[in-house]
Specification:
By secondary structure, the protein is mostly helical. Helix 4 runs antiparallel to helix 5, helix 8 packs across helix 10 and helix 10 packs antiparallel against helix 11.
């Protein structure tokens, strides 16, 4: 069920992004393209796909390209030599399009959450929920042998979880056992939160240093392409942290004792969420605090922030592709072919869900 929920969440994000894309394309991009300002983009060399600079700087990809002009989109001659003109104000269109799209998105999210809560409430808990799982969970439309085995394992896992919950409610821990578990959890959370705060602080100080080095390279007469290469180090550092730290959190989780399997997933999601959100918060503080007007090579603050986000998204996508190929597919082949393990590697729901949320946050 957890893997199914992941792909349902992925489908919902795809629908949201398609809706936002169509709305922005119709009311922002197309009007600006039909009334494009005079710019000098230069030649396309291919590195722009990685850096997000150069040819892409003065294009519809970034906020700094859009103007604050008002155009006439319809001219209709009226009576008595009068003309009826319909203006199109670009700043107002930009504001209303973005505001409307996010307002509708919020309404849909609230509706989905309320619907999911209602379904979970109707299912119930305790012995009634166990009876429902026992007698009503089998899908009789499943006919293939492999699908039957997977469905059987899924129902078996859910029954074990439900029985573990019932047994836990009936069991009582001694004071020493309770204190030992509490101490381990406290140490685990201390290590997790401390490492997340340290990573966020490191990203902030490195971003400040990277900006100073970039400005110094431009002043020293180094070519712009070589100077822009140093800007890639920040997204590489952020992606490397987001790649390594979840595995460290999993190791910490192995030392902890959880009553239910869901608790381990929830704790892992919370720790990874705190890590990613703290890094994004430090980057936002760096962008808002930084005075880019005094840095040579940066003419527009909005465009610079857009380029930073573009590099973060591209490098994060590259890391996900490499992790999928080497960390999941090749490891799966090694486990099945070389190690002869019957049980396949599990799908890390917490890490993959947080990767979706992190990438969506950067995109929005």
């Amino acid at each position: 069920m957890g893997v199914l929920s992941y792909f349902i969440f992925l489908k919902m994000l795809l629908m949201f992004n398609t809706f936002l894309f169509v709305l922005n394309l119709c009311f922002i991009v197309i009007p600006q393209v039909t009334n494009r300002p005079e710019t000098t983009n230069g030649s396309f060399v291919g590195l722009e796909l990685l850096y997000g600079t150069g040819y892409f700087t003065d294009t519809i990809l970034y906020y700094g390209y859009y103007t604050n002009n008002t155009w006439t989109i319809w001219k209709n001659p009226g009576s008595n030599n009068s003309h009826i003109n319909i203006p199109y104000n670009m700043p107002i269109a930009y504001l209303y399009t973005i505001g409307t799209s996010f307002f509708i998105t919020c309404i849909i999210l609230v509706h989905c959450l309320s619907k999911a809560f209602g379904e979970s409430y109707r299912v119930g808990s305790g012995y009634r929920g166990l009876a429902v799982k026992m007698f009503s969970f089998w899908d009789f439309k499943v006919t293939q042998k492999k699908s039957i085995v997977l469905n059987h394992e899924d129902i078996s896992t859910q029954l074990k979880v439900s029985l573990a919950e019932l047994n836990f409610r009936a069991a009582h821990l001694s004071l020493s056992q309770w204190f030992a578990n509490l101490s381990v959890h406290f140490l685990g959370w201390l290590l997790s939160l401390g490492s997340a705060a340290g990573c966020a602080a490191g990203v902030y100080f490195y971003s400040e240093k990277m900006l100073e080095d970039y400005s110094g390279n431009i002043l020293q007469g180094i070519s712009e392409k070589q100077a822009e290469l140093s800007l890639l180090t920040l997204p590489v550092l952020v992606s490397a942290i987001n790649f390594v730290m979840p595995y460290i959190y999993n190791l910490i989780g192995l030392l902890e004792t959880y009553d239910f399997p869901q608790q381990r997933i929830y704790v892992s999601i919370t720790r990874n969420l705190f890590l990613k959100m703290s890094i994004i918060a430090m980057l936002c503080f760096h962008w808002i605090k930084g005075n880019t007007s005094t840095i040579k090579g940066i003419s527009c603050w909005e465009t610079f922030v857009g380029q930073e986000l573009y590099r973060l998204v591209v490098v994060d996508f590259i890391f996900i592709i490499l992790e999928t190929i080497f960390g999941e597919y090749i490891w799966r082949v090694v486990c099945i072919k070389l190690l002869k393990r019957k049980r396949k590697p599990e799908f890390d729901i917490a890490r993959n869900v947080l990767d979706l949320i992190y990438g969506q946050t950067l995109t929005w």
